[in-house]
């Protein structure tokens, strides 16, 4: 990091602060040559690699945009969508990679969306997992029903 005043190639960190949401770090630096201070900001970048090979920066807005269509007419509000996008980002970041395939982003959406709204989940899954026939829908619905049955068992055993 060059000093922006004298172009000295060295700088010393005098203070580091993590942003409120934890996604970036702001550092206060001092140049040992001219003694002037400046700030830098570091963000852990997360790139999404599209099928075409083009990479773009991960954005929660894009997650929300993609899921909103599947949620049309469902009892899902903007807060639900924002929370879902946050869960997806946390899941992806916890994997620790700087790049993720667009398809894997879609898959990371499935879990939280399934918890949020099952109809929206089926719509979204049909696109992202490439459902080709009624069998695919049937299998997904069967899996949802099995979860319901397990939940019912768990509920009745605690009574
Ligand atoms: Zn300097």
Write up what this structure looks like.
It is a single chain. The chain is an alpha+beta fold and 159 residues long. It folds into 2 domains: 12-43, no CATH class; 47-158, no CATH class. 49% of the residues lie in helices and 19% in strands. It has 5 helices and 6 strands. The strands form 2 sheets. Strands 1-2-3 form a 3-stranded antiparallel beta sheet, with no helix packed on it. A 3-stranded mixed beta sheet has the order 5-4-6. A hairpin with a 6-residue loop joins strand 2 and strand 3 (37-43). The protein is elongated. It starts with 11 loop residues before the first strand and ends with a helix. Residues 3, 5-6, 8, 31, 33-34, 36 line the site of zinc ion (ZN).
Briefly characterize the structure:
Residues 1-28 are annotated as: Disordered. The protein has 159 residues and is α+β, with helices and mostly antiparallel strands.
Q: Topology of this structure?
A:
Blueprint: E1 12-18, E2 24-30, E3 37-43, E4 47-49, E5 55-57, H1 60-70, H2 78-94, E6 99-101, H3 102-116, H4 118-128, H5 134-157
Parallel strand pairs: 4-6
Antiparallel strand pairs: 1-2, 2-3, 4-5
Helix pairs in contact: 1-2, 2-3, 3-4
The structure holds zinc ion.
Zinc ion binds next to loops.
């Amino acid at each position: 990091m060059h000093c922006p005043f004298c172009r000295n190639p060295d700088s010393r960190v005098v203070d580091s602060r993590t942003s409120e949401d934890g996604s970036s770090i702001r550092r206060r630096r001092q140049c040992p040559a001219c003694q002037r201070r400046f700030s830098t900001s570091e963000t852990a970048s997360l790139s999404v690699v599209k099928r075409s090979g083009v990479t773009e920066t991960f954005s929660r807005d894009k997650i929300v945009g993609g899921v909103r269509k599947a949620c049309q007419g469902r009892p899902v509000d903007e807060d639900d969508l924002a929370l879902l996008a946050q869960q997806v980002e946390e899941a992806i970041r916890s994997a620790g990679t700087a790049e993720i395939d667009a398809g894997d982003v879609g898959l990371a959406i499935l879990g939280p969306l399934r918890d949020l709204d099952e109809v929206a989940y089926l719509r979204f899954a049909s696109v992202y997992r490439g459902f080709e026939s009624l069998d695919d829908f049937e299998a997904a619905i069967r899996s949802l029903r099995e979860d319901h049955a397990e939940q019912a068992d768990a509920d009745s055993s605690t009574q």
